[in-house]
Amino acid sequence: MFWESMLLALEGLKANKLRSILTMLGIIIGVGAVIAMVSMGLGVQQKVQNSLAGLGSNLLVVSPGANSPSGGVRLAAGSNITLTKQDAQAIAREISGVSAVAPTVSQQCRLVYGRENWKTSVQGATPELLTMRNMRIAAGRFFNSSEENSRARVAVLGETVATNLFGNVSPVGKTIRIEAAPFRVIGVLASKGQSSMGQDQDDTVIIPLTTAQERLLGITYLHSINVEAVNDKVIDKVQADITTLLRTRHHLTANMENDFTVRNMTAIMTTMQETTGTITLFLGAVAAISLVVGGIGIMNIMLVSVTERTREIGIRKALGATYHNILLQFLVEAVVISVTGGLIGILLGVAGARAISLIAGWNAVMSYTAALAAFSVSVMIGLFFGIYPARKAARLDPIEALRYE
């Protein structure tokens, strides 16, 4: 009887093709919208995660606090000059659970090679920064401790800088000028693309820390200290120990605020993941509303179908069809609409997500879980909204049904 009911349901749908397609449209749009929106949300979540992971794992960043001059106007965070290379050495020497420390300075500088010039961020760092920030060398090499200690004029270029200054020519071995000072290019970093905030991570130049401080910027303080913990289990303890150590070194009393900030990148990543996850769920929930609208459309069209086929139902019941036979026939018809609409919606959602990704340049991550969930909900909606019309048809009095005009 099930397959007979299935065939009858398909014949009923074929008899009213346009009406059936329009009824499916709500389910198709609902399922497609859920898949497309969730895919785009997951794409944003993955981009943020990759961007933060590219900064390094189990990473803490120590930066100077805001400077408060005697006038009382508090300046931007990081404007103070309280961090020194000795602070970084003390952290590496005295804090347990630390695997690497990389102090850095940075400044926007103008680069010149031949007739080409480019303005970018020049970072002074120690060799440990390469592995801490998950950077890779595409050509040449990174500078070593000997070059850092001797204040060597060597530079490692990001891909964007290398392309704009040298085009397709390898820059390794060439000499560029950074604010009129000559530097020999010894390497090119592999591309890391844009960050989650839209910043070009390849638009940078890295030189030895001592060279940047003494030969380029003329400063003795640091702009930040990168600290890598051995694992994520000790990162909170390391953060607390760094705070205690620096307060002691900077002679801060109990009633004085920190003149530095210690940021936990793992905590920032967790917060960003939670935020983007919430946005993804919200997008999926908004798109799922159209599934409910599609279900109402199914119930509406099934009620119309019951009214149109009242005499047919009466004849079937007079010939011996039971309550369950009639119930199954109309219930299967509603489910066929929702299943067909759900399958078409999956294809539409996948195609829509890929189209948005290609046209807008956004990242899209296909979720099989979201596709399965949207399809399952569409089937359940077909069952839920098909039960009332099916029960109404199954409970018709055959005598009254046969008299119906």
Structure description:
The protein is an alpha+beta fold and 405 residues long. It has helices at residues 2-15, 17-53, 85-94, 129-132, 145-149, 159-166, 209-217, 235-249, 265-308, 310-318, 323-360, 368-394, 398-403; strands at residues 59-64, 98-113, 116-125, 137-140, 154-157, 175-178, 181-189, 204-208, 224-229, 260-264. It has 2 domains: 2-51 and 271-403, no CATH class; 81-258, no CATH class. It is built from 13 helices and 10 strands. It has a 6-stranded mixed barrel. Helix 11 packs antiparallel against helix 12. It is elongated. Mean pLDDT is 81; it is low at 67-79.
The SSE order reads HHEHEEHEHEHEEEHEHEHHHHH
- Give the number of domains: 2
CA-based gyration radius? 33 Å
Overall outline:
elongated
Strand order of the largest sheet: 2-3-8-5-7-6
Nearest-integer average pLDDT:
81
Content-based structural category = alpha+beta
Question: How are the SSEs placed, and which strands pair?
Answer:
Layout lengths: L1 H14 L1 H37 L5 E6 L20 H10 L3 E16 L2 E10 L3 H4 L4 E4 L4 H5 L4 E4 L1 H8 L8 E4 L2 E9 L14 E5 H9 L6 E6 L5 H15 L10 E5 H44 L1 H9 L4 H38 L7 H27 L3 H6 L2
Parallel strand pairs: 3-8, 5-7
Antiparallel strand pairs: 1-9, 1-10, 2-3, 2-6, 2-9, 4-7, 5-8, 6-7
Helix pairs in contact: 1-11, 2-9, 2-11, 2-12, 3-8, 9-11, 9-12, 11-12
